[in-house]
Amino acid sequence: MRNFFVRRIIGIVILIVLIGTSIYIFNYLENKKKIDLLDQLEVNKIYFQSHEIIGYSVENRKIEVYTFGQGEKNLLFVGGIHGGYEWNSVLLAYKFIDYLRIHPSLVPENIKLTIIPSANPDGLYQITGREGFFKTEDVKESQTFGLGRFNANDVDLNRNFDCKWQPRSTWKSNPVSAGTSAFSEPESLAIKNYVLENNPIAVIFWHSQSNAVYASECENGILPKTLEIMNVYSKASGYKAVDSFDAYEVTGDAEGWLASINIPAITVELKTHETIEWDKNLKGVNALLDYYR
Q1: CA proximity to 100, closest of 111, 87, 89
Q2: What number of other Cβ atoms are within 10 A of residue 265's Cβ?
């Protein structure tokens, strides 16, 4: 009988110890969750990320902007103004978005880095059949010259901005529609509104396929800061720096309009229509971030 009571007491003690241990572990884990959540909130304050829709295309596709950081200097990158014809510029922009999600500390505290991956989603859809992110294997081969370059109104969006605008412009030796007036197209108007509301310190456009970095200008020539950032990106990336595009006359281009409102803008032309040249452009972007740090 005595042994029975001893065993009962030992059993009760063990049960109390197990219950106490369980309560301690539960409280520890709950407190750790709270601490981890607070830590994450603090991290998010530093490595802020957001996504918003800034407009819609002619065919009602989203024009999106992705933001990293909360600094006072807004550095804007734009891909795909020529849609599916330059689909690799869009793919490069999405590659940067994914990279910054994994490496948010790349963005200095004083900078807000924003990316518009596809400024011509209708043109991109003609080539990929997709809205938003796509893969290289989604790209359809086409023998139609320039397919996907224009928006759904058959307007060359990079001729629809207010810098020496005229209703007919040129692409290579071809006449192209520049719209019924400057900013007549919803895509270019969305970019205009975003720029005027957010006042970026500089804008970088990704294009293809001239294998160079170009400065921008309008009626009053090239801004000194434009030449500086052109050379910064060129030196880091290895793309040739070109002060002025003179292969043929261009009117109504986005970069020229930015120059007219005193915002430095450069055009980064990839070497081909199929490659994103990731390492070169990562070096170029890093160099700009260091420049504005």
Answers
A1: 111
A2: 29
Phi, psi (rounded to 5 degrees) for 53:
-100, 125
Q: pLDDT tens digits, residue range 132-189?
A: 999 999 998 876 778 999 999 999 999 999 999 999 999 988 999 999 999 999 999 9
| Contact indicator for 130, 138 with CB cutoff of 8 Å | yes
Q: Estimate to the nearest angstrom the gap between the alpha carbon of 231 and the chain centroid.
A: 21
Cα–Cα distance measured from residue 142 to residue 263, given in angstroms and rounded to the nearest whole number: 37
Distances from the Cα of 75 to the Cα of 42, 116, 286, angstroms: 23, 11, 12
State the first-to-last Cα distance of the chain, in angstroms, to the nearest integer. Answer: 81
pTM recorded for the entire structure: 0.84
Q: How far is CA 59 from CA 186, 224, 256, 266, in A?
A: 10, 39, 26, 29
Q: Which residues are paired to 169 by β-bridges?
A: 176
